[in-house]
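Appendix B: complex inputs.
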Amino acid sequence: MSSKVKVLGFWYSPFVARVKMGLKMKGVEFEYVEENIRAKSQLLLESNPIHKKVPVLLHDGRPIAETMIILEYIDQTWEGPPILPRDPYQRAMARFWVNFIDEKCLNTMLKACWRTGEEQKKFKEEAIEALQILENEIKGKKYFGGDEISVVDHAGNFIAYWFPLISSGMELITEDKFPNIWRWSSDYCNHAFVKENLPPMEAMIPKFKRR
Amino acid sequence: MSSKVKVLGFWYSPFVARVKMGLKMKGVEFEYVEENIRAKSQLLLESNPIHKKVPVLLHDGRPIAETMIILEYIDQTWEGPPILPRDPYQRAMARFWVNFIDEKCLNTMLKACWRTGEEQKKFKEEAIEALQILENEIKGKKYFGGDEISVVDHAGNFIAYWFPLISSGMELITEDKFPNIWRWSSDYCNHAFVKENLPPMEAMIPKFKRR
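Resulting structure:
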């Protein structure tokens, strides 16, 4: 009997995109269930009662929450190309950069977009500081892990694909200020596997313009 | 040739205690280097240039930062009792609760201690909400993973051992309000391996009373 895999998500979520890509990398068939942010399903509330957030992975009915925890579970459960490097040191480095992007970049970039006045100024400064570290890290490399795309690049999908859409007019990441992130963003979005698995931009524009 | 392992830390840090215990569980010999919070060593600044924080593990000169990343590295690198459960689902659950304790409990508890006025009130409420979830999780179990002490309990070392010291007078965790966390805290601190590896209370009291 083959196992049953379900993903609860929002189609426009960068975190859900990371989980979907992880499953596709491993060739795992799954059922995708679209959630409604204003009326979350009973299944979502029961599967992630503490955070009540997507993505949630259900494997034979057992729920797992939080993007990186789900990805590590997928990596350990199914055969196929590794999601995290197998070498312990490289794996630790990948975890470090995923954490850095999630905690230092995304967090401050979102707040720089959504807050106003002095608060916005503060978060913009923090975002620039974090992005400068990322700029130095990607310098001279095609992807964060080297020549091949990896879990760290997928963690940065928000920076490459979502942020330019929601930050219009803010000019936080320009070719001039962050040439290496700019170049990496283009390479990331044009990578064949990524391109196939990112939500379509023509649906994203009206979705995020409404906000 | 045996490998060289070094830990940079503060003796009174709950995070450093977690790393030291991880190495001791595996029977790894290491050199412990005490850092000065007011004059961090060149080695620390070079080993963790981004966060400039302890703990840092150096393995044959290669630095690894961040408590959970270090613990996962130790678990993957050395033989011995597992730090994280081997079963992928149990491992995902352990990661979930470690994250919950680190992000939701410690964060709010510290702010409830250090902030004042309205801010303090807000963080106190958030801390109580998070602790209530933890209270339900530990109910009916000796330790978070069941009968045996595990990585989740060690993540909670701050709650059991440090918090009562720094929160004196706040009465956030009392036997009355959180009977299961109260009982677990006592079991945790009296566990033979833990007792041997926590910083001595007689040194902790003057250290934290000065703040």
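Chain B has ten helices and four strands.
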